[in-house]
């Protein structure tokens, strides 16, 4: 069966689907639906039943061809939108066939150079057909590599009836890049037992844990007075906020000093006048219970600072954002085992990692659909240096097809 992943990918990336974080519409930019429509047309050509919703979601369903009665239903998910950080208008994809090493200079802006220094994994791509943008835009491999891989896998499955599989569902989302990918997802329309997002990096990357995340705000109320007659009365909320920020840890527990499995507290916004001030944080940790410990530390700093300001007050506001999918996936480790075995069966070396952020999969997992994240061949995402390779996407296709086959075999 001929691979269609490259042609699909080149077509999808030329459709501008940039999400808009300032918008209040669903989807945030209506142009995202242009790609959803193309997917709908291609699914129709493949004879795959599906629904394109008014908000741009595509739910598709490939009926199983197995004689076994109880094969679990799996789904695969990716997002059609691209990041707001970098232009996605007039993307001109360039295929660099049979990569032979060295740097790749992007023709429309010679200052944009993909180098081994920036991307050490390039050394493993000799012979690959690398796809880049032309220098003015991102490429959109995040996540059109995932979309193209899932679409080609569907094409392979429906055209190779000798591959036995249970029901396979596809789910394409919008607005993932602004944290709203699955907020309107209808789980009964997905209609699966578990699934995988294809929204990850280098070949073999597989992630089933991500940060647990809270928003946290310290609101300070000080005491105002006429500056000329303030002695012994005024308590400046601005100065209180400044002292709290100055007391935060600097060599640990902050984004600039942590990596791997370490969590952090991060003040991302501060506003204030004499009488009132607010410090907003994001709090992140792979261990969900540690969020409360980090919040307690912030409260301790606040009460210490306020000892010098006896007539001022504080208020803490906690907002739950997302949770580590591992809390859920740990109870369904067969999902992880199947993915690892599938990769090994198709000659891909699995590389387990953790996401220092959230995914569509973390929300789906906590809503009852366990959903780890599988590689699709993304590199340099959200930038003009973004690239992927045809061979990595083909490996993602093979992995998806093999996952479907293994689930049937094990049932
Ligand atoms: Zn993505």
Report the β-strand fraction as a percent range: 15-25%
Q: Note poorly predicted spans.
A: none
The number of domains is: 2
Structural class: alpha+beta
Average pLDDT works out at 97
Q: Order the strands across the largest sheet as they lie in space.
A: 1-2-8-3-9-16-10-15
CATH topology of the largest domain: Aminopeptidase
Bound molecules: zinc ion
Shape: globular
The helix count comes to 10
Distance between the termini: 26 Å
CATH superfamily of the largest domain: Zn peptidases
Helix share bin: 25-40%
Quantity of strands, as a count: 17
Q: How does this structure look, described?
A:
It is a single chain. This protein has helices at residues 5-13, 32-46, 141-159, 187-190, 237-246, 290-306, 326-329, 333-345, 360-366, 390-410; strands at residues 49-52, 58-62, 74-79, 94-96, 104-105, 113-114, 130-132, 168-173, 194-200, 205-210, 212-221, 264-272, 276-285, 313-322, 351-355, 373-375, 387-389. The protein starts with a helix and ends with a helix. It has ten helices and 17 strands. The strands form four sheets. Strands 1-2-8-3-9-16-10-15 form an eight-stranded mixed beta sheet, with helices on both faces. Strands 12-13-11-14 form a four-stranded antiparallel beta sheet, with helices on one face. Strands 4-7-17 form a three-stranded antiparallel beta sheet. It folds into two domains: 5-210 and 324-410, Aminopeptidase (3-Layer(aba) Sandwich); 212-321, Alpha-Beta Plaits (2-Layer Sandwich). Strand 1 and strand 2 form a beta hairpin. The chain is of the alpha+beta class and 411 residues long. The protein is globular. Helix 2 runs parallel beside helix 3 (141-159) and helix 8 packs across helix 10 (390-410). Helix content is 29%, strand content 23%. Residues 79, 142-143, 176, 199 line the site of zinc ion.
């Amino acid at each position: 069966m001929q691979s269609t992943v490259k042609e699909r990918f080149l077509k999808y990336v030329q459709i501008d689907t940039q999400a808009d974080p300032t918008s209040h519409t669903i989807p945030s930019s209506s142009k995202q639906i242009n790609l959803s429509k193309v997917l709908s047309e291609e699914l129709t050509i493949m004879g795959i039943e599906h629904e394109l919703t008014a908000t741009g979601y595509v739910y598709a369903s490939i009926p199983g061809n197995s004689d076994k009665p109880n094969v679990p239903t799996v789904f695969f998910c990716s997002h059609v939108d691209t990041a707001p950080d970098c232009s996605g208008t007039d993307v001109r994809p360039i295929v660099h066939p049979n990569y032979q090493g060295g740097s790749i200079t992007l023709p429309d802006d010679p200052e944009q150079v993909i180098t081994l220094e920036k991307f050490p994994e390039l050394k493993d791509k000799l012979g690959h057909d690398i796809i880049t943008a032309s220098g003015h835009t991102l490429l959109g491999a995040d996540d059109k590599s995932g979309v193209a891989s899932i679409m080609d896998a569907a094409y392979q499955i429906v055209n190779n009836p000798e591959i036995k599989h249970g029901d396979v569902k596809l789910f394409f989302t919008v607005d993932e890049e602004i944290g709203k990918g699955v907020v309107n997802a209808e789980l009964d329309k997905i209609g699966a037992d578990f699934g995988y997002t294809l929204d990850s990096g280098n070949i073999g990357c597989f992630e089933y844990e991500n940060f647990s995340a809270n928003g946290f705000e310290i609101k300070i109320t000080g005491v105002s007075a006429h500056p000329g007659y303030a002695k012994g009365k005024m308590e400046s909320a601005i100065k209180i906020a400044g002292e709290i920020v100055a007391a935060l840890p600097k060599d640990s527990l902050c984004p600039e000093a942590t990596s791997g499995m370490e969590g952090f507290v991060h003040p991302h916004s501060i506003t204030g006048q004499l009488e009132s001030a607010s410090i907003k944080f994001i709090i992140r940790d792979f261990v969900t219970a540690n969020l409360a410990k980090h919040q307690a530390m912030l409260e301790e700093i606040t009460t210490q600072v306020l000892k010098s300001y006896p007539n001022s007050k504080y208020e803490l506001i906690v907002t739950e954002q997302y949770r580590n999918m591992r809390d859920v996936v740990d109870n369904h480790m067969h999902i992880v085992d199947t993915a690892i075995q599938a990769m090994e069966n198709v000659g891909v070396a699995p590389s387990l990692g953790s996401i220092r952020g959230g995914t569509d999969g973390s929300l789906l997992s906590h809503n009852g659909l366990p959903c780890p994240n599988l590689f699709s061949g993304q590199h340099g995402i959200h930038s003009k240096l973004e690239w992927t390779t045809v061979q990595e996407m083909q490996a993602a296709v093979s992995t998806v097809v093999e996952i479907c086959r293994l689930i049937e075999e094990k049932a």
